[in-house]
Specification:
Shape: elongated
Oligomer: single chain
Pfam families: RrnaAD
Radius of gyration: 37 Å
Organism: Durusdinium trenchii
Protein name: rRNA adenine N(6)-methyltransferase
Number of strands: 9
Family: Belongs to the class I-like SAM-binding methyltransferase superfamily. rRNA adenine N(6)-methyltransferase family.
Strand content: 5-15%
Keywords: Methyltransferase, RNA-binding, rRNA processing, S-adenosyl-L-methionine, Transferase
Structural class: alpha/beta
Low-confidence stretches: 48-60, 78-89, 366-386
Number of helices: 16
Bound molecules: S-adenosylmethionine
Largest sheet: 7 strands, mixed
Amino acid sequence: MVRAVVPGLNKDPGSRRLRWLLGAFLLSAAVHFEKAWSFALAGLIEQATRVSRQQVRATNNREVLLAERERLEGENGKKEGAIQPLSWLQKPKPPTLPADLFKPKESLSQTFLADPNYIFKMVSALDDESEGGKRTIELGPGTGAITSRLWQRYPEMIGIEIDQRAMRVLSRTVPGATVIRSDVLMVNYTKLAELRGGPLSIVSNLPFHVASQALFTLADHADGVRSAHVILQQEVAQRLVAKPNSKKYGIPSVVFQLYADPKILFHLPPTAYFPRPNVMTSYVKLDFEAAAERRRALDVDPRDLRNLTNTVFRYRRKMMQNSLARILSCHTTLIDQLPEEYAKLRPEQIEPWEFVHLTQLVFGKKEFPKHFKRAWRGEFGRTVRD
Ligand SMILES: C[S@@+](CC[C@H](N)C(=O)[O-])C[C@H]1O[C@@H](n2cnc3c(N)ncnc32)[C@H](O)[C@@H]1O
């Protein structure tokens, strides 16, 4: 065959090797051509099969969806009607952050408010009257969901944020706002109030992991704080307002009902945030100004009051005489043993003002002030023990 294709090769005896090479080349070309052809054929077949499989799947989906729609329409009494697009069954998408924002950190409790209606309601509830709102302080402004609206109303406000990434975004979303990089637990609110010319109005969607600590920090600086409007987990909010003889009654109930008048203003569902928390939340007002007179009349060292409540609530199920035994034996107190009226009670049965009385007895403070008794008489439906 090679001789026929290249006739000149026959005459040259030295070209025998060349003839063999040419023959081998033509043979391998034929084999490769066949292989390539079968590959191409296999590819075409595979693609055709995939398309038909997709079609089958799509048909199945459509049938399932239509069947589901008919079922639901039947349940709702709508037997007939125009065919709706299949997307009607899809759940609404949760709100997302704009593409250029960072990934929220769980360790910083970064659940950002995403519902403008709740933000509007939150800001509307504020009543700071300082010049330009210079005493308005936002704790943890994050990417500026609240700040952008707050700043329009209070251009002299200050934000306190720990995350530098959030601060970078804030400098773009609310360029005019002043934000300090700090930990909200480390701020000296008394000093800040002095610098801003009076008690502060705090507003915050508090990071959950430090929410209680942040509130106790504010209580420690109660005279430097006018009010705190804060979002808390509903569970924590309910503990602030719980009354004696209930499961939720505890240390926060005693401290904040004495130091600020806590009030739940409204609740927010998880859908108001991105990412969604798996708990309900509440917007709470703590009115430190309204409770100022009472706070001053308490006449106890707040640390003593805290020490006592912490001790007794650590042993919720124990009677006071047992849980306080160690304090009574360790400290030089005005009393050797608890008065009868308290001894057999459990901490959850004792009202906030009675904890003040107890602190004064145990830690040797002044006589329980008469006007204080009057102020509290009947407020919790009980009369003062004499
Ligand atoms: C629940 S997010 C609220 C963000 C924003 N205010 C909003 O509502 O969308 C809490 C914010 O507090 C910040 N944060 C967390 N721990 C903090 C701390 N110890 N001190 C200051 N800011 C903190 C987080 O970085 C985050 O921006």
